[in-house]
Design a protein that fits this description.
about 160 residues; mainly alpha; Ferritin; 5 helices; about 0% strand
Length: about 160
């Protein structure tokens, strides 16, 4: 027997928020996988710096996917958890190649910008439902992704 959820957010709004968070989860997981791939496969003169930076980034993303998935569950919906679902929901393309390090950096900038855009699209829905926990989560995700994109972008600037 499952109990009705009565947290002050109507069912239809909880569903809309959970659908948006499912897209954010897919983007975040796809970016996590891409970052982990780059950590394993980066080469070149900046190897040590990028290898370490990518590890820090994929570790943060790993924790983030859990937070997003748990928020979806708290709203009463199942969190997507398959590659097929993530491929369908994500705005970030999977990476099958091993690009040069500068291209890896540029791809991760684009990925973090995509996560930010996805989070920003969900915000008005969560805000209109007075869903402060989701708004807080979205704010955190945007803040981390915007800062990470800036740091990665800085590596691409000519010295």
């Amino acid at each position: 027997m499952s109990m009705e959820i009565d947290i002050g957010i109507p069912t239809e709004k909880r569903t809309a928020i959970a659908e948006g968070l499912s897209r954010l989860l897919a983007d975040t997981y796809t970016l996590y996988l891409k970052t982990h791939n780059y950590h394993w496969n980066v080469t070149g003169p900046m190897f040590q710096t990028l290898h370490t930076m990518f590890m820090t980034q994929y570790t943060e993303l790993s924790l983030a996917v859990d937070e997003v998935a748990e928020r979806i569950r708290a709203l009463g919906h199942p969190a997507p958890g398959s590659y097929a679902a993530f491929a369908r929901l994500s705005s970030i393309a999977e990476e099958e190649a091993v690009p040069p390090s500068r291209e890896m950096i540029a791809n991760l900038v684009k990925g973090h910008e995509a996560v930010t855009r996805t989070a920003r699209q969900i915000f008005p829905v969560a805000e209109s439902a007075s869903d402060e926990p989701t708004c807080d989560l979205l704010t955190q995700r945007m803040q981390v992704s915007e800062k990470t994109a800036w740091m990665l972008r800085s590596l691409l600037d000519p010295a």
